[in-house]
Specification:
Helices cover 79% and strands 1% of the residues. A two-stranded antiparallel sheet has the order 1-2. It has one domain. The longest helix has 38 residues. It has 525 residues and is an all-alpha fold. It contains 18 helices and 2 strands.
Length: 525
């Protein structure tokens, strides 16, 4: 065989080898869980059930890492504040740290209280229910990751518990009020995240990038933005990240966050002034000032995510372990160290093996991100959770982050369309004049700060005898100049995945429950 043919064959099989390596590593992790329990747990009648449940829990944890962690580091990677390798390393370390340090030692056995455990009196039924919910949630996350759709892991496990619960105890077992709140979060989370991210981006544009001296504006505004970021992230971590270690109310968390924020401001302000003084006066250079804050944001979001969402993997597993060892159904379950290790290691491994696909989707495939836009998305992630927690609104961190990405993208579309309309209006008022005069005015308009642009347009209208553009003409021009900076196919795909997450995982869980029940019940005489 010729050397060229061999090289072609090797290139064609490279992707297959990579996929085989990832699959093999994942299977080794699952097999390692099985071997550990076989050697460490004493032989009992229920040992097999615990081993199978632990393997499913490991599979769920890997899928959480593959799908959900992308929301924390995707914007930083898309804006090139972090490389893919650096993001995976930071996220893996902080996700595992959050799970092990702040994941807690007790977990509620019924996620979000969506079914009434009092109606499940038999321990075996409860174990089958939780196994079905865990496996269904994991399978749906796996499918969503393969499709490139970031979905809520909490909603996946909630749908699984609901479906298996109804299969085990009937429709009356469900808490439909809680389910209504979860459905509301499909709209609340992305809309709130998108609005807040867009608001921060517009603030930065008005106060920094639309100014004639962007460097001087950055020296004033960037330290203040980092002050606000330090407060929001400190408060967010107090309320969500370490709530299982130290539960504090909002005023206390906000006060501690304010103290941290002032300290960070005093530390970073002279550094930013020094760095900004060496930058050229352009938008790309100013954007570089947000690099280090983005790295910290990725790390802190990963820590908080590991502390909170590890319960989606280990919660049902801890509930099964409690039911097996205690022989009954409990509202709260103790989390053994080995169960928490399954969750922490599984999330980190799933991120390393399969996370890049969703990181690219969130970071670069929905809309183009620079460091300024990524910073706004990170701010939306923390502030939205703080606002929602104080208002009692149900939100999903996944939906907030993705909503923030869409928010900054749609704002850019609107601003570009508005700018195109202003250019057309200038040409309209200069109609019939020397092209060089028009070109000179347009060049001056482009370089002018926002306030100066408004004055130039107003002066042009006052000095021109020509009629202004009508509202209908402006609307038509906005359509002409509208550039799609957000991929609509991704918008539709992700929205559809969010809507069907709970129903699909619920239907799968019900089917799996009946399958397990059929296998475990003794045969009819």
């Amino acid at each position: 065989m010729e050397l060229k043919s061999i090289n072609t064959l090797e290139a064609a099989t490279r992707r297959g080898r990579s996929e085989l390596f990832r699959l093999g590593t994942a299977l080794l992790f699952i097999a390692g869980i099985m071997l550990y329990l076989e050697m460490s747990e004493p032989p009992t009648a229920s040992k097999l059930m615990l081993v199978v449940a632990a393997m499913i829990g490991g599979y769920m944890a890997m899928n959480i890492g593959a799908n959900d962690v992308a929301n924390n580091v995707g914007p930083a990677v898309g804006s090139r504040a972090l490389t893919m390798t650096g993001a995976i390393l930071i996220a893996a370390v902080f996700e595992a740290s959050g799970a092990l340090i702040a994941g807690g030692d007790v977990v509620g056995t019924i996620k979000k209280g969506i079914i009434d455990p009092a109606q499940i009196t038999h321990a075996d039924t409860f174990i089958w229910l939780m196994m079905a919910a865990l496996l269904a949630g994991a399978i749906w996350l796996n499918i969503a990751t393969a499709l490139g759709a970031p979905v809520s892991t909490t909603h996946s496990i909630v749908g699984g518990v609901l479906g298996a619960g109804i299969a085990a105890g009937g429709v009356d077992i469900a808490n439909w009020g809680k389910m209504g709140a979860i459905v509301a979060s499909w709209i609340i989370s992305p809309v709130l995240g998108g609005i807040i991210a867009a608001a921060f981006l517009y603030l930065i544009k008005r106060t920094i990038t639309y100014q004639a001296d962007m460097v001087a504006a950055a020296k004033r505004m960037v330290p203040l933005l980092i002050l606000l970021m330090a407060w929001s992230f400190s408060t967010y971590l107090m309320l969500k990240g370490i709530k299982k270690l130290w539960k504090v109310d909002f005023p206390t968390a906000a006060a501690i966050g304010a103290g941290v924020a002032v300290g960070v401001f005093l530390l970073v302000r002279p550094l930013i002034v020094r760095v900004a003084s060496r930058l050229p006066n352009d938008k790309a250079s100013v954007s570089e000032l947000f690099t280090v804050p983005l790295i910290f944001a990725a790390a802190l979001l990963s820590f908080a995510h590991g502390a909170n969402d590890v319960a989606n993997a280990v919660g049902p597993l801890a509930a099964i372990n409690e039911a097996i060892t205690a022989g009954g159904v409990a509202a709260k379950a103790h989390i053994p160290l080995w169960v928490m290790m399954v969750g922490a290691l599984g999330i980190s491994l799933g991120l390393a093996l399969y996370g890049p696909k969703l990181i690219r989707t969130v970071g670069s495939e929905i809309t183009e991100l620079d460091k300024t836009r990524a910073f706004c998305i990170a701010m939306a992630a923390s502030i939205t959770v703080i606002i929602a927690s104080q208002l009692g609104l149900p939100v999903s961190s996944t939906h907030i982050a993705v909503g923030g990405v869409f928010g900054v993208g749609f704002l850019r579309e609107y601003l570009k369309a508005s700018y195109g309309t202003m250019i057309e209006e200038i040409k309209h008022h200069h109609e019939g004049e020397d092209p060089q005069v028009i070109e000179a005015f347009l060049l001056e308009f482009k370089k002018a700060p926002l306030q100066k642009k408004s004055e130039m347009l107003e002066q042009l209208k006052n000095n021109s005898a020509r009629a202004h553009l009508t509202k209908k003409e402006r609307k038509r021009l906005r359509k002409v100049y509208r550039t799609e900076l957000v991929k609509r196919t991704h918008l539709l795909k992700i929205a559809a995945a969010w809507v069907i997450t709970v129903p699909v995982s619920g239907i799968m869980a019900a089917m799996i429950y009946f399958m397990i029940r059929g296998m475990m019940l003794p045969p009819m005489p």
